Structure formats: structure tokens, C-alpha cells
Amino acid sequence: MKKPNKLYHATYKALIPKIKSEGLGGKSAKPNWEDSKPGVTYWAKTEDIAYSYTETSENVPEEWLDEIIVFECAIENFDLSQLFIDKNVIENDDATFEYHKIMPFNKLKIVEID
User: Fold this and answer.
1) Are 50 and 44 in contact (CB under 8 A)?
2) Spatial distance between the Cα atoms of 35 and 70, rounded to a whole number of angstroms
3) What is the reported pTM?
4) What would the pLDDT profile of 43-91 be if each residue is shown by its tens digit?
5) How far apart are CA 39 and CA 3, in angstroms?
6) Are strands 68-74 and 6-12 parallel, antiparallel or unpaired?
7) d(CA 38, CA 5)
């Protein structure tokens, strides 16, 4: 699998305080989809792909859907032994990934979405 230089993860502004203190995928993180695994974060090759998953989440308050943010993270910040193709997506085309480790907040950059 060829990995891109950066990956993107979308989430909700309301979760930033927890992410700052615990990292992305920390102990109090709750899955946003019924088939998501605890302790696993999901990443995408582009901001738009990440955003599209977050705006259709099944398990978040409706008002959060208007306050989505996207994090960018350089591939060198990942433990590549813990980064895998997303098993929840049937025809993935290496567009989304699972990360089985916590990503510290200081490795994340918030990107603007048009």
C-alpha cells in the first residue's frame, strides 16, 4: 500500500478539549459509527473524504453536524505498523485508513474547508 504524505481526520469542534487532553483516539473517545472500533481512528487521503464521513455520522448530536473540523497530520507522525486500510469500506481504493494508536494533539493541524 502506497501511503500519502498527509492524512486527514474530521471531527467536531465540541470534542477539541478532550482531544487536546487525551489525543485523538484517547480513552474517552466514542465511535461515531456502529461498525467503528474503540481505540481506532479513521483517516482519509483528502480533507473532502474525511469531511464527508463526519457529516453523515450516525451517533452524534444533530447540532454537531454544523461544527465539523478537519485535522491534517503528516505521515511521519504515524506509527506505520499501526496504520491499515480501512476494513469497513468495501471498495476502498486506499482512500481511507484505520489507525490503531492515539495521535497526540500537538501532531495535528486544523485545516480550512471551503
Assistant:
1) yes
2) 21
3) 0.87
4) 999 999 999 888 887 778 888 888 999 999 999 999 999 999 888 776 7
5) 21
6) antiparallel
7) 26
